[in-house]
Amino acid sequence: MPCAPRQVPSAKGATARMRIGFFTDTYTPQINGVVTSIRLFAQALERKGHAVYIFAPTPRQPADGPHVIRMPSVPFAFQPEMRLAAVYSARAHRLVRRAKLDIIHSHDPFAVGLFGLAMAKQTHVPYIHTYHTLYPEYVHYVWEAQFTREIAERLTRDFCNQCDVVIAPSTKINRALAEWGVRKPVITLPTGVDAKTFSERDPEAVEAFRGRFGIADDARLLVFVGRLGLEKNVDLLVDAMSFVRTKNAHLLVVGDGPYRDDLERHIRKDGVEDRVTFTGYLGRGDVCAAYHASDLLFFASTSETQGLVITEAMAAGLPVVAVDDLAVADAVRDGVNGLLVAEDPAALAAAADRVLGDPALRSAMSAASLDRARSLSIDLQAERLLAIYRDALALHPRVGALALGRRAARQKVTAQLRTLRRRGGRFVRRYL
Fold it and tell me: pLDDT of 167-184, one tens digit each?
């Protein structure tokens, strides 16, 4: 792994060059919002001249560059597409020390995130954490019960209170962390969007996309994009299709996941097979074509921490019809660039019919979506992230890495990780 030149903050706090470590248990080949956020921020920071090293679980991917460091992992028993990483890697430890990171920024509170926390403590650099996921909403993948939700909340609190700064992608997450007892500084910073890419419409790609999936020329498309999990509430969108009255309205479901079979059974039960199309996972270009082939984004999830697909859809000029949720409301202004309604299929259908049936309203909402997406461009958000890093450095000056031998360093990190796991309780000891 090449080592970038050391950066030195100036007297005014500006930074010529930083070396930033992203530590994450969620990365390629997975396809989800966390991975997208990490990659967008890493690319934007690198364009600005900073070096970003990504520590993530195996398997190594062909697209990995020299700054992607993979840690040993095995598939997660409940979700094989997810990985359980080792809490320590001698190679990763050596590379952290060689890189002389200025900032350690984690994106999960699990094994790789804990490793990053231990390394931040050892090398005396600020530890930033982005709380991407409302983990209490995902306990059904392990064991759905009130006490498991309480454990998830307690683990979140204990982990975040060991960080220097916590980043919340939405107002919703900021409030939840405060309610759960997080006392460290929490800053709301949504992930930016590559607004230019999603705003560019390619008519030939759109036509090819519709032909590929057998979508009629006169179909009015309501598109959902995301992982197909129970928490995404796609069942509500399926139910709503029975109430939509717009002629030739069609639901396009872009994505895949463990809940797809259940959704297909639901569609057959409701008899709306001719009004719903599944595309499976799509590449970036095809997702962009899906947005531009559609008339509005149809969204019912209340478990989002931000919902990157909402910002992507807005960058493509789509109005949004969604269930009213605090995370969604950060991006969608009701009546301006979309409609936010109660968690009810008839209400969702009525809102979709209203947008589809009023060309002037749809055009105004489309323009408002484009304006809002431009204000959330990834380059602007990366500048805001750099400001957080600079403030953290100013409050937590680096005093240099500890001069420990390899064996002593490994023993120290292992001891720190054991302490963190004990604090995490039985859940962490079992699954990490």
Answer: 999 999 999 999 999 999
157-173: string of b/e by CB count within 10 Å (b at 16+)? ebbbebbbbbbbbbebb
What DSSP string describes 341-380? E-S-HHHHHHHHHHHHT-HHHHHHHHHHHHHHHHHTBHHH
In order of their start, the domains of the chain are 19-192+378-431 (3.40.50.2000), 195-375 (3.40.50.2000)
pLDDT at 150: 83
Phi, psi of 165 (to 5 degrees): -145, 140
Residues 131, 112: Cα–Cα separation, whole Å: 14
Give the count of alpha carbons within 13 A of 27, CB side only.
Answer: 31
CB–CB of 130/169 below 8 Å?
yes
Positive or negative CA dihedral for 343, 346, 349, 354? Answer: negative
For residues 246 and 137, which has the higher predicted lDDT (pLDDT)? Answer: 246
CA distances from 5 to 97, 128, 143 (A): 14, 22, 47
Interacting residues of 349 by C-beta distance below 8 A, sequence separation 6+: 240, 241, 242, 243, 244, 245
